[in-house]
Amino acid sequence: MKYFYAYATTEAECEAIHTIVLHSDLNIQETSIYIDNNRYDAWNQLIANLEMKDELYVYKLSSIAADGNTLFVHLTYIKNKDITIKLLDDSDLNTEQMLTLIDFVRDTQRKQIYDKQMKGIQRALEKKRNGEGDYGRPKITLPADFEVNIKKIMRKEMKHEDYREKLGFKRSTYFKFVKDLKDSWKQQELERSLRKDGKY
């Protein structure tokens, strides 16, 4: 049985294609004409009716789907069903060759994307080695009065939890900064002690 399918992007295009098919010499019944408009409802209806050895006419190869991946899926279905696909001038399309070509194009595109990603990663790593750019988690900037407020907390004038919530820090992040600050105090105290003893 003969069927026709096309994927169009506008109502005007749908109507124009429909008129062309009706006035062709192919004698395709109007009930066997399936034209989609930005969706694949008609395609789904079509494949519910397609049977082995049927003939599927298309307006042009690019009108079978909106993108390469969907085109590959549609052509694979047609090939597996052993359906002959033809253009409106009644010339056959070699589905196997079309699939091979599309597969090659998709592989080439994937490789190009991968190569671009790798180049981007290499540039990012190079910038990181040179100390340029920001990578990983966003850096947290401590307020200028952080040390002053921690000292107030040490004197029981404030509470850690209240100050942490005010800063909007996670507990682990907040107490890491507190620990780093206390460690720096210990280091400063040690250096003062060594200088006092003449050992530094």
Automatic annotation (TrEMBL):
One of the record's GO molecular function terms: DNA binding
Entries under InterPro entries matching the protein: Resolv_N, Resolvase-like_N_sf
Domain called Resolvase/invertase-type recombinase catalytic: residue spans: 2-130
SMART domains: Resolvase
Parts of the chain that traverse the membrane: none
Protein name: Resolvase/invertase-type recombinase catalytic domain-containing protein
Organism: [Clostridium] innocuum 2959
